[in-house]
Amino acid sequence: MPERINVYLTRIDRDSIISNEDKLIEKVSDWRKEKLSRLKNPSVRAESLSAGLLLRYAIVHELGGEFGEYDIEAGPQGKPHFKNIEGAEFNISHSGDFVAAVISRYPVGIDIEVKSDTKFRVTKRMFSEQEQKRVFESDDPDREFRAVWTEKEAYLKCTGEGISVALKSFYKHMETSEIMRETDREFKGTGCYVTTLKPEGEDYCLSVCSKDIKFTLDIINVNEL
Predict the structure, then answer these.
(1) E-assigned strand segments in the chain
(2) Distance (Å, rounded) from C-alpha 111 to C-alpha 155?
(3) What average pLDDT does the segment 12-21 reach?
(4) Coil, strand or helix at 220
(5) Among 225, 193, 24, 206, which Cα is nearest to 102's?
(6) What is the pLDDT of residue 135?
(7) Whole-angstrom distance between the N-terminal and C-terminal Cα of the chain?
């Protein structure tokens, strides 16, 4: 039976975050504070601070205890991870007015996306043949583009590789949900699986990728950070 993974989701209240920044910043990790210190744009700072606050919320609900018990650091490829706790991985994503966070006992990546592909230039240039067919044969090509894009981002965040990998070199198998990757001129399974949500009436898509397990997602909407 598939495992269930909780995704914590919130809409960014930029005005509230900006006006209460001095108080809220004390709630996030030193790693997040250092990252915030490099950001000058108030709106961008609000996005980053919201991400840190949402992760704090997720940690308390998934792992128990207080946030101060957990330190965060960047790994060799830049992917942040818990410094002093084993058996738990996390990932965060934000786009537009949304922030999403996930915690799992397996390697995990998450991506949320609200942007569109103007004239589908990205689709034609960066998506595999299978993915282009998905987009252009969809009843809602713009929404399908966001689904494919988040699948790719979630996979690369799960592995920690980032966008240095050619985006055409892998895709999600629609029947098994496994990421297939080109190796020696043929596509082979990676052991990484992706679940994607395309909520009706919303302008975002969200994907989570995890290694070694098939899973379903539960969305936990967080109204107050």
Answers:
(1) 3-11, 72-74, 80-82, 89-95, 98-104, 108-113, 170-172, 178-183, 186-197, 205-211, 215-221
(2) 9
(3) 96
(4) strand
(5) 206
(6) 96
(7) 33
CA distance 222 to 123: 32
pLDDT at 218 over 90: yes
H-assigned helices in 77-191: 121-126, 129-136, 141-159
**pLDDT band with cut points at 50, 70 and 90 for residue 83:** confident
Q: In this predicted structure, what is the pLDDT of residue 66?
A: 63
Residue type at position 129: E
User: pTM for the full model?
Assistant: 0.94
Percent helix, strand, coil in the chain, to 5, is 40, 30, 30
Cα separation, 129 vs 168, in Å, equals 8
SS3 103: strand
Does position 68 have pLDDT exceeding 70, yes or no? no
